[in-house]
Amino acid sequence: MRTTLTIAALVLILLAALAFAWFGWTGTDADVPAAGYGALAAGIFGAVVIGCGLMALIFYSHRHGYDAQPEREERKLHD
Asked: Is the pTM of this model over 0.70?
């Protein structure tokens, strides 16, 4: 029951966000020039490239042990 309510709430939030975006995009009479669409596409592409690059760095770091916990070496006292 709790999971169903959580999913329903999240779906309602998503639908509200999509409705807000739709009416915000189509509610004005302003025309977007071709350069505006080009800038939008470049921004989306850049965000995806940066996201993929950061994920690749995370996987590389994890596989090569760069994010492992440091190990302490205990000094042995010589008698």
From this structure: no
Q: Look at residue 77 in the predicted model and tell me its pLDDT.
A: 67
User: Phi, psi at residue 22, to the nearest 5°?
Assistant: -65, -50
Q: How far apart are CA 79 and CA 77, in angstroms?
A: 6
> CA 45, CA 55: separation in Å to the nearest integer?
15
Instruction: Return d(Cα 24, Cα 44) in angstroms, integer.
Output: 19
SS3 27: coil
Side chain identity, residue 25: W
Q: How many angstroms separate the CA atoms of 61 and 56, rounded?
A: 8
What's the rounded Cα separation, in Å, for the pair 43 and 79? 66
Q: How far apart are CA 17 and CA 15, in angstroms?
A: 5
Mean pLDDT of 46-56: 97
